[in-house]
Amino acid sequence: MIKPRPLRPGDPVALIAPSSPVSEEKIELSIQSIRFLGLEPIVFPSCFMKNGYLSGRDEARTKDVNDAFADPDIRGIFCVRGGYGATRILPMLDYESIRRNPKFFAGYSDITALHIVFNKLCGFITYHAPMPSRGYAALDPFTLNSLFNAVFAGAQPGKVENPPEESIETICPGIARGEITGGNLSVMTAALGSPYEIDTREKILFIEEVDELPYRIDRSLTALKLAGKLEAAAGIILGTFSDMPEEDVDPADTLSLSQIFDQIIRPLDIPTVYNLRSGHIYPQIVIPMGMRAELNATMGTVAFV
Q: How far apart are CA 221 and CA 188, in angstroms?
């Protein structure tokens, strides 16, 4: 797996919106975020477009991704926000050109679809990282340190540390090694059965989710299981499952998150941990997707190697 060159102060980087539309306020905040890092923001047209719940027509969003990779002056690419829509542009991306021009690429949530294809089809590491519309200057020190290391040092070996007082829990003990893949649960399941589906064979599968009811998390995990994606993985890292809606039901009529994991994942007897602090939460760990990692589920540790 290729490690794109880390960024350097002053590097021009693209701001793109491959999924949902971005408000003027968030565009300005994204520009400020990139300048806060000491980089030069180049705002691409998709950031100013709106097509219902999409940032623009599929062709326009595709063009921005392709152009950002093809432009030799652009050293890195930051997705401004997630939302929905990245899966729609997967068939139109110029994978050969992208493969020839690996660059620092960052985002998460709906951007999971792009992480998967860039790792799988183009062979380079990408970064599951906070997006600039969040406002980098306001990030907590833990998240900011993780982001700065990814941006300016790149994918480096070493142990992954959760924020203080946040422990990683063991679901199934054991040790697993492999490239880390995955991201948002709903986005992963949306591409199943297509040429762009996730490949988990001998890999460590990272899963996170936000704002989903227990039965929907159950349904998506079951879809991955039926597709053989859970069983094929060398290990599983469950990140955060944040902002789960309150259910107005008797507890006897639903399942907790731990019960879902116990019933779907534990029987696989694959090294698995829960609560790596990465996902739709802060503080947040930046994950180099595609990098080799060692998961010691017995000890509750993760290290990139």
A: 10
pLDDT class of 259 with cuts at 50, 70, 90: very high
Catalytic residue ranges: 109, 208, 280
The residues that bridge with 274 in the sheet, in sequence order, are 169, 238
Same domain, 132 and 249: no
Residues 148 and 162 in one domain: no
Decide if 214 is inside a domain.
Answer: yes
- Edge to edge, the sheet with strand 104-107 lists 40-43, 12-16, 76-79, 104-107, 126-128, 287-289
**Overall pTM > 0.90:** yes
pLDDT at residue 247 in the model? 73
Q: What is the 3-state secondary structure (H, E, C) of 36-101?
A: HCCCEEEECHHHHCCECCECCCHHHHHHHHHHHHHCCCCCEEEECCCCCCHHHHHHHCCHHHHHHC
DSSP assignment, residue 167? P
Note whether 277 and 184 are same-domain residues: yes
